[in-house]
């Protein structure tokens, strides 16, 4: 560390005309960060590996940060040029980059309220309006695991989640993301966004949003991801999370109008961001168990992810639509549903309840009806793994994609599954008879 400080002192003196500063280490993710104090001036020094990709990305970030200075009512880090007029300098395989140190109170230190949520929405929309159209260089097209557009890059980290129940929850939302978001990806708007508006990057002054720091995750992606990320972190540790999501949407939409499709997939984007957070935290703990910077949001992220499962996706979708002034999605009334049932389905199949329930989705122990209610299912064949368990769904998809037939034929899947199934039972149960809704084992 002593040698590094000597190097930093020399670089600052030679390239930035800064002598004998105070140097304090700060935590970072993609870079090594230091707080530099020179007289009354404060800076952030960032050190990167001197790769061509990093050089291009830093140039792109610098151009955007300069452009954002036009939003004069907010504070953004400003890149400091070297004495030779560059935004970074390379020495011995390391890039040294100096930025202004932006001051303010972190949003994470304040009590959340709806006014701040609305302000944050407006702020992000104003920032997006500046950056989204700036895609004039391929440098921002980096593919990072923190970009929801590339959620699949995080699947490799699921195995590091120690609790099987937690892993299943993450796998469930990965599955839903593939089913509910990916089919619409070609219709989503693209542009450059900050992509990490969390409570420890957002700054406030006098209880108002004042700026943002840390552009390390900035990328070219679906523009709705900016709002999805901000909503995700703002809702953490809140008893009624949707109330704050509403205000963020209202604020954003008041300046930069959203589309219905963006609102309709927002539930799954939020779940996806939570999955990215817990996956990376699980992996990071194996690499650096003592890093609070990496794992600071882990517990609230897990809490929100489990709470998110209790929220009916239909309710969330219609809540988000209403926040932006759109009508809820149309649905058939229960009377219309019953008419169709009577027309096409045999009366020998019974219908439960005097007031039948129109179900639309399910997840583990929960079922979601068309009216936005979440129903705890203690009856409907869920005793083993619950509804839509990701491993069961994956196994069924793989099997049906290969061969979907009956027991009148000889095929490997039938024999291997029967063998594995019987291995779970006493030896006295040694034969399997498959039927359409249960498995009977006989001696």
Describe the structure.
With 443 residues, the chain is of the alpha+beta class. The protein has four domains: 99 residues, Phosphorylase Kinase, domain 1 (2-Layer Sandwich); 219 residues, Aminoglycoside phosphotransferase (APH), C-terminal lobe (Aminoglycoside 3'-phosphotransferase, Chain: A, domain 2); 43 residues, no CATH class; 38 residues, no CATH class. Helix content is 41%, strand content 16%. It is built from 14 helices and 15 strands. A five-stranded antiparallel β-sheet has the order 1-2-3-5-4, with helices on one face. Strand 8 and strand 9 form a beta hairpin. The longest helix has 22 residues. The chain starts with a helix and ends with a strand. The relative contact order is 0.09. The C terminus is likely disordered.
Would you identify the CATH architecture of the largest domain? Answer: Alpha-Beta Complex
Choose one word for the global shape.
Answer: globular
Distance between the termini: 72 Å
Low-confidence stretches: 439-443
Overall pLDDT confidence = 91
Helices, by number, come to 14
Spell the H/E element sequence.
HEEEHEEEHHEEEEHHHHHHHHEEEHHEE
CATH third-tier fold name of the largest domain:
Aminoglycoside 3'-phosphotransferase, Chain: A, domain 2
Q: Which homologous superfamily in CATH is the superfamily of the largest domain?
A: Aminoglycoside phosphotransferase (APH), C-terminal lobe
**In total, how many domains does the architecture comprise?**
4
Overall strand count: 15
- Report the biggest beta sheet as strand number plus sense, adding barrel if it closes: 5 strands, antiparallel
Radius of gyration: 26 Å
The helix content, as a percent range, equals: 40-55%
Spatial order of strands in the largest sheet: 1-2-3-5-4
| Percentage of β-strand residues | 15-25%
CATH class type of the largest domain: Alpha Beta
Structure class: alpha+beta
């Amino acid at each position: 560390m002593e040698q590094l400080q000597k190097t930093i002192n020399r670089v600052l003196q030679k390239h930035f005309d800064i002598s004998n500063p105070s140097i304090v280490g700060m935590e970072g993710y993609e870079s090594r960060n230091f707080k530099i104090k020179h007289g009354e001036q404060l800076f952030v020094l960032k050190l990167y590996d001197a790769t061509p990709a990093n050089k291009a990305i830093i140039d792109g970030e610098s151009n955007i940060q300069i452009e954002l200075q036009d939003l004069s009512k907010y504070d953004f880090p400003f890149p400091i040029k070297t004495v030779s007029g560059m935004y970074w300098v390379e020495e011995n395989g390391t890039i040294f980059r100096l930025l202004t140190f932006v001051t303010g109170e972190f949003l994470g230190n304040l009590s959340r309220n709806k006014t701040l949520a609305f302000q944050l929405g407006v702020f992000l929309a104003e920032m997006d309006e500046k950056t989204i159209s700036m895609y004039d260089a391929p440098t921002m097209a980096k593919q990072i695991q923190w970009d929801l557009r590339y959620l699949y890059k995080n699947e490799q980290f699921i195995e590091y989640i120690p609790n099987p129940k937690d892993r299943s929850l993450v796998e469930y939302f990965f599955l839903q993301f593939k089913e509910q978001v990916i089919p619409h990806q070609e219709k989503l708007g693209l542009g450059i966004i900050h992509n990490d508006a969390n409570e420890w990057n957002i700054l406030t002054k006098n209880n108002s949003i004042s700026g943002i720091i840390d552009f390390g995750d900035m990328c070219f992606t679906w523009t709705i991801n900016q709002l999805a990320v901000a909503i995700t972190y703002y809702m953490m540790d809140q008893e009624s999370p949707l109330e704050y999501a509403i205000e963020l949407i209202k604020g954003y939409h008041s300046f930069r109008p959203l589309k219905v499709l963006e609102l309709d997939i927002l539930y799954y984007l939020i779940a996806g961001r939570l999955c990215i957070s817990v996956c990376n935290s699980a992996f990071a703990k194996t690499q650096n168990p003592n890093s609070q910077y990496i794992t600071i949001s882990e517990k609230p992220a897990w809490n929100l992810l489990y709470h998110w499962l209790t929220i009916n996706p239909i309710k969330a979708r219609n809540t988000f639509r209403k926040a932006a002034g759109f009508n809820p999605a149309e649905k058939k009334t229960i009377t219309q549903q019953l008419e169709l049932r009577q027309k096409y389905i045999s009366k020998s199949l019974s219908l439960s309840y005097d007031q039948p329930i129109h179900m639309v989705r399910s997840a583990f122990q929960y079922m979601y009806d068309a009216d936005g209610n979440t129903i705890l299912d203690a009856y409907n064949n869920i005793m083993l793994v619950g509804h839509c368990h990701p491993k069961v769904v994956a196994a069924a998809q793989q099997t049906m994609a290969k061969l979907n037939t009956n027991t009148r034929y000889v095929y490997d899947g039938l024999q291997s599954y029967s063998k594995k199934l019987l291995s779970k039972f006493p030896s006295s149960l040694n034969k399997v008879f498959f039927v359409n809704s249960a498995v009977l084992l006989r001696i």
